[in-house]
Amino acid sequence: MSWIWRGLRPILESVLAGVIGLGVGALIMRAWGYRPWPAYVALFKESFGSGYGLASALANATPLILTALTFAAGARAGLFIIGAEGMMYMGAMAAVALSLLQLPSGLHAFAALLCAAAAGILWGFIPAVLRAYRGVHEVISTIMFNWLSHFLSFYLVANVLVDPIRAEKTLSIAKTSRLPLLIRGTDLSLGIVVAAGLALLFYAFFWHTVAGYEVRGAGANPHAARYGGVSPQRTVLLVFALGGAAAGLAGAVEVMGRPPTYAVYSGLTNLAGFGFDGIGVAMIGRIHPLGIIPAAIFYGGLQAGARLMQMEAGVPFEMVRAVQGVIVLALALPELTRIFKVFLQSLRRKGAHA
Amino acid sequence: MNWAYFWSLFSISLHAMVPITLTAVGEVIGETAGLFNIGLEGILLVSAFTGTLGARAGGPVLGLLIGLLTGLGVGVIFGIICAYWKGSQMIAGVGINLFALGFVAFGLQVLGSPGFYTVPRAVQLPPIRTSVGSFSPVIPLALLLPFLIHWVLNHTRVGLRIKAVGENPEAADVAGIPVELTQLLSTAAGAALAGLAGAYMSVSWLGSVTKEISAGRGFIALATVVFSGLRPLLALAGGLIFGFFESLATWIQSLPGVKETVPWQFISMIPYVATLLVVAGVIGRVRFPKALGVPYRRE
Which residue in A163, A238, A266, B68 is deepest, having the highest Cβ count within 10 Å? Predict the structure, then answer.
């Protein structure tokens, strides 16, 4: 029985935290005079009640899977990398920049994805080195690099990659570099395959290779890992590189696979937030590559449904990010399962008496 | 180049120093007791917003008070999760930041001004006007508070207890000091100062609220704490340094001829680059409490 519980526990915890998050969200809506029940009905009906909604949920999940992988890779090694946001911007910039070149279809998209991954890795390099060799806490350094990326991207969008006809956005991704849509009439592109594929690769690496095992060991017990001959510096550089690649790809698949404009808007309005949302998604997915996929679909669905919620119930869609914050707060609790266990036991006892 | 330019640099520095200093000395209290709160950024953001609501309802002083209480409330939640329920401090801090992003964006929408809200001049905190310029009344508070906290931490029984809890919770527990309560109160007091800092930004200094009003200051304050090595007076010095770099970015852009030659985006990077350099430079020579970040469980 215990192995079932071990597998089930993280899922139960996430579900429970989700319920707590939606509950607090309902309280906030009430406090502002909205009616939570119709709002949530609209939200879930839109996101998971129709084929189109589901396709939107999957399309929204695509960059989130990737930025969540960034956080998860760090967390498995005991690092708190919250720099996916900045790495993601750089990936998007690289993808747009590559559209200045002319390459054959297919190869073009592949080259753009590679460059985006490289841009993400590059953006994580200095924080990685500062962490590995100077002991600078990655929370501070990656946040500072997020802001540097923010301003650099503002500059690139407005001056270097700007669309000469429409100054409010960058050049659109070249037709040869776009990711094909999987379902016509939706936003769901091949990007979801890239994202899910990378999640599977991360899973294979962390759970089925020696190097991945060593990284997880270093996260669980740094001293033991060091005695075992695992270099802490190498571990830091490795997970920053893995995470940077994933986050860079997140920015790229979003611009290369999101119709109709295939571009970045000034103010980064169509990119901002994916990196931070990825942290929440990683947490809901229990920093496990395979858990991240359903967590991202759940959160992507919330985002898709939130638009309808705003239209039907008038509740601003930003609500869902506040809900996500509460979910993460609840997941900080190691006691969450114990509370749940006590609850289950009381149910079982009741069943025995009956 | 004349004297007035330098004077404006000094004036902006003093104003920019306040939120970082208040947040940093607050976090010094919390970290001395062993709790590491990376949710400060979120607290600044939320209380900048709630402070505005308070000011609208009952004037600037109420606004500052509401901001302080908002920080206190978030700090109490953080303290309960982390001190009493042994939750992960990092994850709880991230939760606060995510919540803040959503909550403030939501709240600004509800106020009917997506993304940007200007605090009416009538409910902004009136500045102290002197012959050399006008200053926010919160500035002297931010300059004095680090001295008070220095005195409390180093020269009172309360301070000694806070240090004991952060350094060796087992020993503190055996000596009869309530470990969890001390941690809760310390982190909540620190968060309350961050709340005051947030309300100061919207109600006194900037006179507006945006989704990005905190602009990384919570994390710059964390860097200031690292720089200070948990000494409140050095946290004040750090606040002055980072406030200076922040105002330098604003100031350079106001110089004649600069706007045409250097893109503003690169000038805006100055405070963040400065933070990275300072943190990378001082690391290694500061010592933190032994039990920082580790939940205490009685054996």
Answer: B68
Is the ipTM reported for this complex over the cut 0.90? no
| Main-chain phi, psi angles of B197, to 5 degrees | -60, -40
**Positive or negative: CA dihedral B281, B282, B285, B290:** negative
Q: Where are the alpha helices (DSSP H) in chain A?
A: 2-31, 36-48, 51-76, 84-98, 107-129, 138-155, 191-208, 210-220, 222-227, 232-257, 274-284, 289-313, 319-331, 336-353
**Contact assignment for B266 to A155 by CB distance below 8 Å:** yes
A280 reaches B (C-beta below 8 A): yes
Question: What's the token pair of residue B46?
Answer: 């939320």
pLDDT of B262-286, one tens digit each? 888 999 999 999 999 988 887 655 6
- Dist CA B149 CA A88 (whole Å): 41
What are the phi and psi torsion angles at B118 (to 5°)?
Answer: -90, 125
Residue A221 dihedral angles phi and psi, to the nearest 5°: -155, 90
Instruction: Give the span between the Cα atoms of A339 and B214, in whole angstroms.
Output: 35
Average pLDDT over residues B2-10: 78
Angle CA(B200)–CA(A316)–CA(B121) in degrees, nearest 5?
30
Contacts of A335 in chain B (CB under 8 A): 85-87
CB B225 within 8 A of CB B31: yes
State the residue for tokens 């001082």. Answer: B282
| CB B38, CB B93: distance < 8 Å | yes
Beta-bridge partners for B209: B117
**Partners of residue A143 in chain B, C-beta under 8 Å:** 41, 216, 219
Task: State the smallest CA–CA distance between residue A105 and chain B in angstroms.
Answer: 35
d(CA B151, CA B146): 9
| Phi, psi torsion values for A314, nearest 5 degrees | 75, 5
**Contact pairs from chain A to chain B, CB under 8 Å:** 150
The pTM assigned to this predicted structure is 0.90
Sign of CA dihedral B72, B78, B83, B84: positive
The position carrying tokens 């359903």 is A294
- Cβ of B97 within 8 Å of Cβ of A325? The answer is yes
Q: Does residue A32 contact residue A313 with C-beta atoms inside 8 Å?
A: no
Q: Where are the domains of chain B?
A: 3-282
Q: Which residue on chain A is closest to B88 by alpha carbon?
A: A332
What 3-state class would DSSP assign to B135?
strand
* A residues 40-99 closer than 8 Å to B (CB): 80, 82
Residue B281: closest CA among chain A residues belongs to which residue?
A: A134
Q: What is the DSSP letter of A170?
A: B
More confident residue, A220 or B235: B235
Nearest CA in chain A to B91: A332
CA distance A325 to chain B (A): 4
Give the SS3 label for residue A183. Answer: coil
Strand spans (E) along chain B: 116-118, 128-130, 133-135, 208-210
Nearest to A319 among B41, B82, B102 (CB): B102
What single-letter DSSP state applies at residue B113? -
Best A321, A326, A335, A337 member to test B by mutation, with max B CBs in 10 Å, is A321
pLDDT in tens, A282-296: 988 989 999 999 999
Q: Which residues of A touch B77 (CB under 8 A)?
A: 329
pLDDT in tens, A293-344: 999 999 999 888 888 788 888 888 888 888 888 988 888 887 666 666 666 6
Q: How far apart are CA B108 and CA B131, in angstroms?
A: 37
CA-to-CA distance for A184 and A188, rounded, in angstroms?
8
Positive or negative, the Cα torsion across B273, A171, A167, B212?
negative
